[in-house]
Each structure stands twice: as structure tokens, then as C-alpha cells.
Amino acid sequence: MTVLTIKHYILLALPIGALLVGKYLDDQETLRMTRFRDKSALYGRTLGPDEKPSWP
């Protein structure tokens, strides 16, 4: 039977914390980029009244 020490908890918490920070930053970037969706000069077009954006 092994006893979990503080070192084990730290080694477990670091990857989980990095994952959460990365997810937060990715979500913030997605929110920032929604200002530009469907507004590209090359691919942009006017959406109809019941048409959803091309990406979330």
C-alpha cells in the first residue's frame, strides 16, 4: 500500500492546472475571433435571417 505524499499531489496538480489554463486561453481566443467570423473579404457574405454563423 502506497502513501500519497505532497510530491505526488503536486505532480498530479501541475498537468491538470496547465490543462485548465490552456482551455481558458483557448476559450478567450475563440471569443475574440468571433468578431471577425463571416467578415473575410475573400469568404464573407451576408447571412440570411435564419442562417447560423459558419462556425461557433
Detail the topology: elements first, then pairings:
Blueprint: H1 6-33
Radius of gyration: 21 Å
Distance between the termini: 48 Å
Instruction: Report strand %.
Output: under 5%
Q: Which of globular, elongated, flat, extended, rod-shaped describes the shape?
A: rod-shaped
Largest sheet: none
Arithmetic mean of pLDDT: 85
What structural category do the secondary elements indicate? mainly alpha
Helix content: 40-55%
SSE pattern, N- to C-terminal: H
Describe the structure.
The protein is mainly alpha-helical. It is built from one helix and no strands. Helix content is 50%, strand content 0%. The protein has one helix at 6-33. The longest helix is centred in the middle third of the chain and has 28 residues, at 6-33.
Summarize the structure.
By secondary structure, this protein is mostly helical.
Keywords:
56 residues; mainly alpha
